[in-house]
Write a structure and sequence with these properties.
Blueprint lengths: L4 H4 L3 E2 L5 E2 L4 E2 L15 H8 L7 E8 L19 H11 L6 E6 L16 E2 L18 E2 L2 H6 L1
Parallel strand pairs: 3-4, 4-5, 6-7
Antiparallel strand pairs: 1-2
Helix pairs in contact: 2-3
Bound molecules: flavin mononucleotide (FMN).
The site of flavin mononucleotide has 7 residues, from strand 4.
């Protein structure tokens, strides 16, 4: 099938009944611009407001579900109820163009930022050092979580 504008502008229905008005999806994009307390900043809210008009679905930038899971500096957080007001503001901004929005949740595992996580301890599914990256010298291995710890996460 050739991808045409006509096709992209057709509605799409998921099996659960949610229908998107078109097939244009805003990709998840981390902006590294949360406030220092990991809440969403006014700057990032404005960034969503400026981009969500007309799309069929919005996927937010990723947010860490555990304090140990932060993958970028200034990433807005979702690991505690104290972030609910922040997430509510994000939801309002992401949906302000009339499309549904998905919150992208994640845990950065061995690619988390060592200086920003509790005790500087990387945790993940296995005891492995992530390749060298912007926040990681490639030498620090994660501690493998036990089944019980994964269950409790
Ligand atoms: C600045 C920036 C931030 C991104 N943040 C995320 C993210 O939080 N989560 C994610 O899954 N992908 C993220 N991505 C990847 C994009 O969503 C997208 O998959 C990638 O740019 C490839 O898109 P393309 O195949 O259309 O080129 C990011 C990309 C960029 C450029």
């Amino acid at each position: 099938m050739t991808l045409s504008n006509d096709f992209l502008l057709q509605p799409f229905s998921f099996a659960n009944g949610i229908t998107l008005r078109n097939r244009v999806v805003m990709a998840p994009m981390t902006t590294w611009s949360s406030n220092a307390d990991e809440t969403i900043s006014d700057q990032e809210l404005a960034w969503y407001h400026a981009r969500v008009e007309g799309v069929g679905l919005v996927v937010t930038g990723c947010t860490h579900v555990q304090a140990s899971g932060i993958g970028f500096t200034n990433e807005f957080a979702a690991y505690d109820d104290r972030f609910v007001p922040s997430r509510r503001k994000l939801a309002e901004a992401a949906k302000s163009g009339g499309a549904p929005a998905v919150l992208q949740i994640f845990h950065a595992g061995n690619k988390a930022v060592p200086s920003l996580i509790p005790n500087g301890e990387l945790v993940g599914a296995g005891a492995v050092a992530a390749p060298k990256g912007p926040f990681n010298d490639g030498k620090l291995a994660s501690r493998a979580l036990g089944h019980q710890e994964i269950f409790l996460m």
